[in-house]
Design brief:
The structure is a single chain. This protein is α/β, with parallel strands linked by helices and 407 residues long. The strands form 3 sheets. The protein has a 5-stranded parallel sheet, with helices on one face. It has 2 domains: 33-130 and 386-404, 2-Layer Sandwich (Enolase-like, domain 1); 135-373, TIM Barrel, CATH 3.20.20. It is built from 12 helices and 13 strands. The protein is globular, with a radius of gyration of 24 Å.
């Protein structure tokens, strides 16, 4: 070896080391999905958009992931696309489940797809011994502030009576947010038709009372519950501007939102949020991109799972739009903490469980003093007592459906 060859070899050695690093300490094992099981919790919520159906995804390496959401039929269909697949290829599996059938998923199937996706991320975190938020870039906050849905009224008053400002403080201690959430969409059980004009007059007074109750530094929000057409929504938004709500939720009907909210944004100064019924990001990306909303109500598993929620968060971060996810099941809420603790923009959770224990989830959400905290438990950080759940054996999937089988 001559002098030039020797020095060239010395110079190339460090570069070779960079090109061929040592084996990473955290390496994903080879794995396949072997079975998907579906369970009904003791307090099953029959509403698909707030479903707390429990789903588990089993693998041949002894790791089982847990998710939540969907309905029996949609879960069965989504489960069929997972069997035999690598559970760590979350993006590829999401895309396959999305396009594998004739019709693109509606919101019902997106909910089930999201439940499966939660379980896949749980598997990945458990395999690496890390919480999901560490896999998503690490937490940007240690906790997410929460608020409880509902108003307050004086004892003895009817549901239509004015909100009692003195009733707000007890709710503050439970929810962590100084204020309440009056509901402009409610009506008396004995009422005939929904009289928007009388509702607007009543809601205006209630909002005034709430502002007085929480004081100048308190926060409060109001839900219009999609009860109003554009003209009535505008009237109420203008009427409550002096009382400075934190946001107005669902001001118009969802089917009109893409047309009406941009107009409303130009005519009122109150912050707007929408989307508790939204599913995939294509339902609302234009509203975010055009800065027509200040917050979105997109949640899990409705958005299609963690895989899609992180894309939603990226869109919101790009356009300085906050995220106030609609309340959901307890496992999905734990997944939301893992997702949105990594989000750099404003985050506020609607959370209605308070400090109540959930008997079939001995470990789930770390909720304390109105805050949902991150933790270092692997995966979603959820442990389920399966003996308290009802197993729907007829819905188990251990092989792909015939139309997807390749051998």
């Amino acid at each position: 070896m001559n002098r030039r060859t020797f020095f060239n070899a010395l110079a190339a050695a460090p570069a070779l080391g960079l090109l061929r690093p040592g084996t990473a300490a955290a390496e994903l094992p080879k794995a396949k999905i072997t079975r998907v099981r579906i369970y009904r919790p003791p307090n099953l919520n029959p509403l698909f958009n707030q479903s707390n159906m429990v789903v588990t995804v089993e693998t041949n390496i002894g790791i089982t992931g847990i998710g939540e959401g969907g309905a029996k039929d949609t879960l069965e269909q989504c489960a069929g696309t997972l069997i035999g697949q690598n559970p760590f290829r979350t993006e590829a599996l999401w895309q396959e489940a999305y396009i594998a059938w004739f019709y693109p998923p509606g919101r019902e199937k997106a909910h089930a797809l999201g439940a499966m996706d939660l379980a896949l991320w749980d598997i990945k975190g458990k395999a690496l011994g890390l919480p999901v938020h560490e896999l998503l870039g690490g937490a940007a906050r240690d906790y997410c502030e929460c608020y409880a849905t509902g108003g307050a009224r004086a004892a003895g008053r009817t549901a239509g009576a004015a909100i009692e400002p003195e009733g707000t403080r007890a709710r503050d201690d439970r929810s962590g947010v100084s204020g309440v959430s009056p509901d402009a969409g409610r009506r008396s059980r004995s009422a005939g038709c929904y009289d928007t004009r009388s509702v607007i007059r009543r809601a205006e007074q209630e909002c005034k009372d709430v502002r007085e109750g929480v004081g100048p530094d308190g926060n409060w929000c109001i839900d219009f519950h999609q009860r109003f057409d554009l003209n009535d929504a505008l009237r109420l938004c203008k009427a409550i501007e002096p009382y400075e709500p934190f946001f107005v939720e669902d001001p118009v009907r969802d089917e009109h939102a893409l047309q009406d909210i941009p107009k409303l944004r130009q005519m009122t100064s109150v912050p707007l949020t929408h989307g508790e019924e939204w599913g995939l990001k294509w339902d609302f990306n234009k509203l975010v991109e055009n800065h027509d909303v200040d917050f979105i109500r997109s949640t899990l598993p409705n958005a299609g799972g963690i895989t899609e929620m992180m894309k939603v968060a990226a869109i919101c971060e790009t356009h300085a739009v906050g995220i106030v996810p609609h309340f959901t099941g307890p496992i999905a809420t734990a997944a939301l903490v893992n997702c949105l603790s990594t989000f750099s923009g404003p985050v506020l959770f609607e959370y209605n469980y308070g400090g109540r224990p959930i008997d079939y989830l001995p470990e789930c959400l770390d909720f304390k003093n109105g805050k949902a905290h991150t933790n270092q438990r692997p995966g979603l950080g959820v442990t389920a007592d399966m003996t308290r759940l009802t197993h729907d054996r007829r819905s188990d999937r251990a092989r792909p459906p015939e139309c997807l089988q390749t051998a």
